[in-house]
Amino acid sequence: MYKNRSIVFIKSYRFIFLSVSLMLIFLLLFNFSGCESKEKVIKIGNQSVLSGADKFYGEDQLISLSMATAELSPVRIGGFDYRIELVTKDDEGNAEKAFLIAQEFVQENAVAVIGSTFNGTTKSSIPVYSELNIPFITPSAPGEDISGGYQNFYRMIINNSQKIENIASFLNNDVKPKKLVLIDNGEDYSVKLVDYIIEIFNNKKISFNKRYSVKFDSTDYNMLAENLLIDEPDVIFFCAKPNELADLITKTRKLQINSRFITEEMGMEESITDTADKTELEGLIAIVPQPPSLAKYTEDKKSIDFWRKYTDFAAKMKPPTLSKEGPGSFAPYSYDAFYVLINAMKTANSIIPEDYTIELKKTSFAGITGQIAFNSNGDRLDPQSTEFIVKNGDWIRYSQ
């Protein structure tokens, strides 16, 4: 009798053990399946100014990045499908707020951040992201000193130094003046620009005839024109506002000075023809720090398609986001920055910054803003400028 009871007990134990084992296996399989089915997400930060007088820049960036997100998400990386989540934060254009925003993005595990709008906000944010080597790409801050040698920083636009280097290169290599005179309008921006041109010339042992620094004043401009008559330059580079440029050109033409005038983006406005005779402006050249694909009068198909898509996308956003008619000049750079990031992740088969940063540094991407590659400082490699010339009273693309 005891023997039969033992047999029943053993059979019952085996049944219970088998049942529990099957339940554990089922639970493990269920949990594993649940983990596998959990949505995978790439969190990318969008840091910009979205309030105050400059909020258009942030709105412009938001629309561009939202459009890129819609086009690329979901994306397959390393054998998995990822939904791209764009997380937007307003740093208010304030350096202290930008520092705090950067800390928030780090705590929220953003794998990359695009921003910020200005030099100050960008500069204060970089060290925070650098601690975890989170790539930080600015589409709009041009200050050449903001990176401070950080390896996680990238810039989509031409920086201030590169802009002036392109001006110096055009003057020396394309125009090839025999007697060059450099003039600034006495304001900080203009003075520093001409200072840097001279520094480049000195470093490359390129000669120029003279440099003037004259604030806008009719009497002083008359005297400057008379000095130019004595100097007899064949080329005059003048970094000035359109009205200042027009006034000096008018005065020199009255003295029968036929020097070629060259300026930069500040002097290139349609309004210049309202303050000087069109015939006197003939041949005026302006060097603008934008690639040919984006600059005025572009016929580039990628750019035209982008502007059309941008306008359509912005109109569908709810509520309407843009406070000004767009897109702005930095929109294509924001859009390209997003594509460059995702392309680096796809190439590296990883969304981990430590992995895909290697590919980001090796970027070679044909974007709306031209061929994109970065130098060792994270700046654009060989960024282009575009030249314009006044012909028959109108600005057109310059060609030799």
What does it look like?
By secondary structure, this protein is α/β, with parallel strands linked by helices. The chain has 2 domains: 41-157 and 299-368, Rossmann fold, CATH 3.40.50; 161-288 and 386-397, Response regulator (Rossmann fold), CATH 3.40.50. Helix content is 46%, strand content 18%. The protein contains 12 helices and 15 strands. The protein has helices spanning 2-37, 55-72, 95-107, 119-130, 160-175, 188-203, 218-231, 242-254, 278-281, 301-316, 331-348, 353-361, and strands at residues 40-48, 75-77, 80-90, 112-114, 136-138, 153-155, 180-184, 210-213, 235-239, 260-264, 285-288, 365-367, 370-372, 386-391, 394-397. It has a 7-stranded mixed β-sheet, sandwiched between helices. It has a 6-stranded mixed β-sheet with strand order 2-3-1-4-5-6, sandwiched between helices. A hairpin with a 2-residue loop joins strand 14 (386-391) and strand 15 (394-397). Helix 3 runs parallel beside helix 4. It is elongated.
Average pLDDT works out at 91
Give the CATH architecture of the largest domain.
3-Layer(aba) Sandwich
Spans with pLDDT under 50 lasting ≥5 residues?
A: 32-36
How large is the count of helical segments?
Answer: 12
Largest sheet: 7 strands, mixed
Topology:
Blueprint (H helix, E strand, L loop, with lengths): L1 H36 L2 E9 L6 H18 L2 E3 L2 E11 L4 H13 L4 E3 L4 H12 L5 E3 L14 E3 L4 H16 L4 E5 L3 H16 L6 E4 L4 H14 L3 E5 L2 H13 L5 E5 L13 H4 L3 E4 L12 H16 L14 H18 L4 H9 L3 E3 L2 E3 L13 E6 L2 E4 L3
Parallel strand pairs: 1-3, 1-4, 4-5, 5-6, 7-8, 7-9, 9-10, 10-11
Antiparallel strand pairs: 2-3, 11-14, 12-13, 14-15
Helix pairs in contact: 2-11, 3-4, 5-6, 7-8, 11-12
